[in-house]
Each structure stands twice: as C-alpha cells, then as structure tokens.
Specification:
346 residues; alpha/beta; Rossmann fold; 2 domains; eight-stranded mixed β-sheet; four-stranded parallel β-sheet; 9 helices; 18 strands
Length: 346
C-alpha cells in the first residue's frame, strides 16, 4: 500500500518572487501558477500534491496590513485539515512583520507555515527565488519518522536559512542574504542536505487545536529616541488620545536620557493606560533596564522590558493583545511573557 502523498498549499500574496518577464513585451507579469510550473519545472519532481491560492490583485509588501493578515489566516484556517503545510510567497519588505503577526494570530498552529520570497523575480536568470521556493516547499512537507510535522510553526526561509518568523528581521535591501535571526539560532540550514536544529524548533503538541485570531489593533506607534529629541514632540506623541500602545526604541540595553521631562511624560502616559514596551535599537542583544540608572528610571515610569524581541515581534504582539481587548494590566503582563517563541527565557 503506497504512502499517502503530502499536500502543500502555496499562498501567493504578491512580491518580487511571483514576477515573471514576458518574453514578447519584456514587462514583468505577476504570479500565475501555470507560469510558475513553466519557470520552475522542478516542482513536478516533488512527490507532493501542490495547490495554490493567489491574492487578486497581488499586493506589494509595502501595502501589507492587518486586513490582509486576516485573509492569510482565513485561508490557512479554512484549508488547515486539507493540507500538511503552507508556503506563503511574500514581498521581502514586510515579510518579518507578517511572519510575526501570523505567529500570534494562528494560536495552536501545529503545521509548517513557511514564508519566502526573493530579491530577484523568479523569471530572471539569476533569481534567488527558485531555490527559496523549492526548499521552502520541502521544509513545509518534511515530517518526523512518526509522521508529525518537522517544523510545526511559522518560519521564514531565505538564502539557505530557516528562521523562526517572529525572531527574523530584514537586514539587507540588495543582498540575497536579506534576513537574519539575531537573537535566536537558525532552525535549519540548507546545503547538500537540510540540517535541522531540532532542539530550537517548537515541539509538536498533538493536543493543540488551531484557534485563529482576527482582531488586531493599529492604535500603536513605533517611537525611536535620538540625541537631541525635542520635549514638545515627545509630549505630543505620548499624550495623544488615539495611541494605546508604544514601541519605545531606546539606546543600548534599554537606556534613555535622564531628562526629567522625559520620565514625567512616560509616567503620565502609563498612568493614562498606554502600554509602552522598551526595545533596543541595536541589532543584537537584549533590553536590561536594571543594568544602568538610565534604564532604572524607565522601570520606575512603568515601562515594560521587551527583552530580546524584534521590533516586528513587539509591534505585532501588542497589536494582537490590544486587539483581543484584554484588560490593560493583562496586556502588560502578557507583553512580558513568551507567547509564540518570540522572547527568550530570562
């Protein structure tokens, strides 16, 4: 009796990877799965059932937003029992935001959701899209000896690296090696073979049930410190009645100027019920507000440590928690806690 073939659903949202140059006009045309099979005939060599869904029209990743995240979640939820894994083709500019958002919106996910894309269109001779796509599909279909998914979580696969989605960030606009996971090890590295770092992959839980979440609050701002920042600007931002949450990008290990007006403005904002999370502007490392006096003053002002979360993870986590309309104190507590592998143990 032959083994049942795994089924993979490709979800094309838009982005460079789906662009194919018309041989007659020279213009770039967007995704069509028949075109994809023509340009990537290796897909036919997979012993898999591969289906596709495409956004119509395709979305430039700069236009990605929570409403489109909801569409992706709905597609995955509707097809969850029909497919063994999902590959999302996505523009690179906001891919890390989407991967982070999906990690929170797809509670109880126990199947691979692999986002990938490319820096050059798949119809271009030197494209990086072909390898990214083929390996992403292989990872989405990979199973343990007991038949359970090898990577049951939301990931980004790009340039020979599989990274946890909510630990990834885009670090290069023009290199094929466009994404990094600075504060968490790669889940796999591809070469002659795909080497999985199983110890760092979220364990499979047979009891988990997929619970999709669709509400995301956008009443949030990312606010970066810089030398010479003006009191009037800061106070205007922090006192805005439309803002419910603030991702506060600070220096080094979570430090800010010792100016009393800044502490007062932050304290007033937290008393008003705003959730403020401190994340570092550095590429690697963690916020440790108890390390220096300049960080301790932020703790006293009610600022939450984002520890080693990426900006993308901190933002989408806050959007998710505020969207759930939880009590503010619960939002603050859950921002400190690990929900989907986005934050390291203290």
């Amino acid at each position: 009796m032959s083994e049942k073939r795994s089924s993979i659903l490709i979800i094309y949202t838009g982005g460079t990877i789906g662009m194919i140059r018309n041989a007659v006009t020279g213009a770039l045309e967007s995704f069509n799965f028949d075109h994809l099979l023509r340009h990537v005939p290796e897909l036919r060599q997979f012993n898999l059932n591969i289906s596709s869904r495409a956004f119509n029209p395709p979305i430039d990743s700069s236009d990605m937003n929570p409403a489109l995240w909801r569409r992706i979640v709905e597609i995955i939820h509707t097809n969850y029992d029909k497919f063994d894994g999902f590959v999302i083709l996505h523009g690179t500019d906001t891919m890390a935001f989407t991967a982070s958002a999906l990690s929170f919106m797809l509670e109880g996910l126990m199947k691979p959701v692999i986002l990938t894309g490319s820096q050059l269109p798949i119809g271009v001779l030197r494209t990086d899209g072909k390898e990214n796509l083929l390996t992403a599909i292989e990872i989405a279909a990979a199973k343990n000896s007991d038949g359970t998914p090898l990577v049951p979580e939301v990931c980004i696969y790009f340039h020979q690296k599989l990274m946890r989605g909510n630990r990834s960030t885009k670090t290069s606009a023009d290199s094929f090696n466009a994404f990094t996971s600075n504060n968490y090890p790669n889940l796999a590295v591809s070469g002659m073979e795909i080497q999985y770092n199983s110890h760092f992959i979220r364990p499979y839980n047979a009891e988990a049930k997929l619970t999709p979440h669709y509400k995301m609050s956008s009443d949030i701002i990312i606010f970066s410190l810089f030398p010479g920042i003006q009191q009037s600007v800061v106070e205007k931002i922090l006192s805005s009645g439309e803002i419910k949450g603030i991702i506060f990008r600070t220096f080094g290990s979570g430090n800010a100027p010792k100016a009393q007006w800044l502490v007062d403005a932050l304290s007033a904002a937290t008393r008003q019920g705003k959730v403020i999370v401190n994340v570092t502007q550095c590429n690697t490392g963690s916020v440790k507000m108890s390390l220096y006096e300049t960080g301790l003053q932020l703790l006293d002002a009610g600022i939450i440590s984002g520890r080693d979360m990426t900006v993308e993870a901190a933002l989408t986590k806050m959007m998710f928690l505020l969207g759930e309309e939880l009590p503010i104190e619960e939002v603050r507590q859950r921002m400190k806690s690990n929900i989907a592998g986005e934050i390291s143990a203290s």
